[in-house]
Design a protein that fits this description.
The protein is an alpha+beta fold and 89 residues long. 25% of the residues lie in helices and 25% in strands.
């Protein structure tokens, strides 16, 4: 099963910091996480289901290629990291 881990800024919104989920794509893995923690979806994805501007997703240390459809292929040992980018001055 793939592992989805959350950066500290997202951890405060959910009861878990790590999720073990099945899926062949990043979208399927995230849908499994959102099924467990529906409130997290709004922090990660916009109304069209694309990754929010200030969120970064890495799969096996590679930045996600498809931020709109989340079709990047994953395997059973993939580690996915969700991070909120910090901005400001």
């Amino acid at each position: 099963m793939a592992v989805v881990r959350l950066a500290q800024h997202l951890q405060r919104h959910v009861p878990h910091v790590e999720f073990r989920v099945s899926g062949a794509t990043v979208r399927e893995a995230l849908d499994a996480v959102f099924a467990q923690c529906p409130t997290l979806r709004g922090y990660v994805l916009d109304d069209q289901g694309a990754v929010r501007k200030h969120v970064a997703i890495f799969a096996d240390n590679e930045l996600l290629n498809d931020r709109r459809m989340l079709t990047d292929v994953i395997g059973p040992s993939t580690e996915i990291y969700l991070m909120q980018a910090l901005s400001g001055g």
